[in-house]
Amino acid sequence: MKTEKGERVSEAEIAVHWQEEEYYQPPESFVEQANLTDKGVYERFSPDKFPGSFEEYANLLHWYRKWDAVLDSSHPPFWRWFAGGKLNASDNCIDRHLPNYRNKAAIHFVPEPEDEATQHVTYQELFVKVNEFAALLRDFAGLKKGDRVTLHMPMVPELPITMLACARLGLIHSQVFSGFSAKSVADRAADAESRVLITMDAYYRGGKLLDHKENADEAVELATKAGQKIDKVLVWQRYPGRYSSPTPLVEGRDFIINDLLKGYRGRRVAPEEMLADDPLFLMYTSGTTGKPKGCQHSTGGYLSYVAGTAKYIQDIHPQDVYWCMADIGWITGHSYIVYGPLALGASVVVYEGVPTWPDAGRPWRIARDLDVNIFHTSPTAVRALRRAGPDEPAKYEYHFKLMTTVGEAIEPEVWRWYYNVVGKGEAVIVDTWWQTETGGFLTSTMPALHAMKPGSTGPAMPGIYPVIFDDEGNEIPEGSGRAGNICIRNPWPGVLQTIWKDPDRFVGQYYSRYCKDPASTDWHDWPYLTGDGATQEADGYYRILGRIDDVINVAGHRLGSKELESAALVIPEVAEAAVVPVADEIKGRMPELYVSLKAGYASGEELEQRISDAVVAEIGPIARPRAVLIVPDMPKTRSGKIMRRVLAAISGGADVGDTTTLANPEVVAEIQKLHGRYELAHAA
Ligand code: PRX
Fold this sequence. Notes:
The protein is an alpha/beta fold. It binds adenosine-5'-monophosphate-propyl ester (PRX). The site of adenosine-5'-monophosphate-propyl ester has 24 residues, from helix 12, strand 20, strand 24, strand 25 and strand 27. Adenosine-5'-monophosphate-propyl ester binds next to helix 12, strand 20, strand 24, strand 25 and strand 27.
């Protein structure tokens, strides 16, 4: 396929190409109060000041011991930021705020049922709860520094409490998104070798109180099969004092945290003094192969980077009320609900449920009632809210000063609705591009310094030096508007340290592609491969075109093609599976799944449904394919490789191009017919 400029782009780049848009200036009212109005920031972070420039972020934190070196880059690409420095993330997000903000809300928890009261957790209460729970984790669960703990928690205050209690003890938490399946939990617990699982009995989603505990039972069973014994399941109660799940507790294995905590009242636990490069958490993300990667983030570098970027890009002041609608189970929630904002002493909103529940006015009522002034969400959520209630925001009295978009490219039309209707023309918008691996933002306009350009993320963050390579490794000239593979030239404090237990995969995945000399100990030779296609326009702004690898971005979340395909192969009738992304009005992209059957089996709706359900069971509801198409055979090259390009063209209604090189070109027309029939049947 070709772009409007006639360049070839890979099939995974089936990109959003739109015309240049107008610029919007940040509102005066925003600039007057912004944390960063000094253009000198780029001078402070200029290449010749690297890496010392990043001390500006580290200095936002409380350190028990100052670092010996800002960056130890002697073993590329295993960077050690603030080497020798000591700190604790829980101390930085809680204890140090107590003298000034003891009675200020750290967390406003909004339950999904609208008649249930909002809970306000002050910094003092957070301190008490985190200490008591940390004591329990240490003394009851027997956990100690360096142990991994798997969490499968919904959007409730107990999730940040659990994370911060882990951080206090130096435990490495690995939170799995609550919507992910028991199988996902089991795989991640097995990879991280966690013997403790922390979960909740139930939570609300779309008006239903879901039984969440049943996932834990299945996860423990599957983890055992995968070779990992989970000996304790710690269960928070959604309603303290009442068990809300129909799934019984397993004697000797499952324990109600709310009951146990009675034995830990008043307990205090001194925060562990962690080295800056001790891991803080693992966050698993999809990759090009079936197995999710445990991205390992550090304590000192990560916390510095998210604090710095939350301050400058989210413009968080302690008096702000900040609401990021993402789930804490994703990196956005880790960095920009929990660690960044709390390190700055913000008040954060945690909302349990679906944004459009019970109606599309819900977010704006929450914003009004809590006086939220910073709002953060994804294009998928903006599209859904726009469709469900285009006129709702105007009905509610709230005022945002800043709004963030993250996770996928936002179409200019949707951007304008976000700006004019949600933001009422008063709020600055930042379109932040980054990844699970990068810890924090890579590109964005600086909210008080740059004009916004709808659909374009903006220039690189201070201290981040991107470079765009072509497939041969030549640098594409800056500002040329030509598409290529965007990399980051330099290390930065937020970047992942490694893939848990798999340093070779880490190097191979992120650093091998454009490293000219694997023996080099000079960081200049180790550009970080983001896996995204991008252009840089003459104004210096980057436009992200999408993934260049086999990853499909559904509603801003990454799903590996291989993971989806492996899930389909669980069904015994399935011989082969191939997944391709198709455009979706709300979610941006959705997977379409093509399968061929083993000899002797017939296609049918029941089988399609079973395959679709298998994908949900293996990964989670987010992965449900838009369509399952049972085809007589896959289009294949003569060497037997499935031609996903052809399937993607069929799904996208595009020209399939030259198919004469296929081993079985005749199958293309048959698949087109099947797809056409599917579309007709579902058009109604
Ligand atoms: O393709 C890019 C897209 O989301 C990917 C990262 O996904 P994940 O690790 O799940 O993290 C999502 C939240 C940080 C990227 O490789 N992406 C993220 N932000 C943007 C984006 N694409 C376009 N514009 C963005 N602002």
